[in-house]
């Protein structure tokens, strides 16, 4: 009898526990459902009717699109409504959700990912989001969110130890300063605040987030200087974008120790980066008003593969054996193309347009140009380069883009250009080129764009090969061209 009594008591206890667990589950599910319905209610425009047709109470939210949940407890773990359609910066408005983010979204206590990127959400960012202790990724970029980055966002983090790894608020309408409390995000790996209306100085607490790998602060109105020790507390930092701000002072020498990408144009630096190691891969310092010379040690950046400068070219550039992209456009380079460029054997893109280059390429440098076997793009437009187009270009077998427009080049177009079998675009307009269009160009089967306008060419325009797809815009304002009616020239 005693055994039976104990058995019934045990069964009763289990039943009570199951009821409590069921009630807790039901309550939690109701909380999750309420939060999702609150979000749906705040969406004023759902062009593709994704939420309207699918987010209904007739079926469990576990079956709703763009909602992920834990199978064990049926809690919402991810809400991904990123751009209701294919995302691009030029995406049409009708592919985007319009509305605001409700404060009730913060009741999704098991949420790990909240991705609402690339919609047209407005209003302020709810404080409650930053109280979700499980949140790993918060991506609200490319919306129209306004307000400030309140210090309260980061002041009372769960257990004083946020698990947030990715915070993306780029391309919104946030204003005010970056609060010092943002440094409480101790595990943050990506911080993207680019293209807002933020001002003030960069808080020193950011430089203490040792886990940080990507820091994007560009296109704001941030001012002040970077600490001389910048980079030392950030051993994992790989990408830094701080272009188009109002930063000044010296560029800390420690930057090249740790970063692979460094975006810097549009600021007012007083000195150039002093290379401290060879780990830097991308370096952009265009339009920075840098005072002082480029250091000779820049040649030590042997792993650099992308370089954009607004200054004169140091001879040490020849030491950058890994350089693949060189952007020196919009400078005051004069006379000849710098000799040092011809030694960059891995160079794939050379942009020297909009300078004051005037001299023809010397014959004694032609042999050195053969070292540039990896060149795919040559941009030399808007200079004053004279003489003839060098036939040495025929050796660039993988060249895709050739732009020599708006110069003073003369004489004939070399027959050897017909050897550039990979060429996709050739722009030779606004020069003084004469004689006939080489028949060899019909062999350029990949050529999709050709502009020979505003020269002194004469003779018949070829009909075969890529010329069958060109129009009159490729041959305007020449001396005496003739050919098919589609080219708007005499027969």
How would you describe what is shown here?
With 491 residues, this protein is of the alpha/beta class. It is built from five helices and 33 strands. It has helices at residues 2-42, 50-54, 152-155, 255-258, 366-369, and strands at 43-45, 67-69, 76-80, 98-100, 113-115, 120-122, 137-139, 146-148, 166-168, 173-177, 190-192, 197-201, 214-216, 221-224, 239-241, 246-250, 261-263, 268-271, 282-285, 306-309, 325-327, 334-335, 349-351, 356-357, 377-379, 386-387, 401-403, 408-411, 425-427, 432-435, 449-451, 456-460, 480-482. The strands form five sheets. It has a 17-stranded mixed beta sheet, with no helix packed on it. Strands 8-10-12-14-16-18 form a six-stranded parallel beta sheet, with no helix packed on it. Strands 26-28-30-32-33 form a five-stranded parallel beta sheet, with no helix packed on it. The longest helix is centred in the N-terminal third of the chain and has 41 residues, at 2-42.
Write the layout of secondary structure elements.
Elements: H1 2-42, E1 43-45, H2 50-54, E2 67-69, E3 76-80, E4 98-100, E5 113-115, E6 120-122, E7 137-139, E8 146-148, H3 152-155, E9 166-168, E10 173-177, E11 190-192, E12 197-201, E13 214-216, E14 221-224, E15 239-241, E16 246-250, H4 255-258, E17 261-263, E18 268-271, E19 282-285, E20 306-309, E21 325-327, E22 334-335, E23 349-351, E24 356-357, H5 366-369, E25 377-379, E26 386-387, E27 401-403, E28 408-411, E29 425-427, E30 432-435, E31 449-451, E32 456-460, E33 480-482
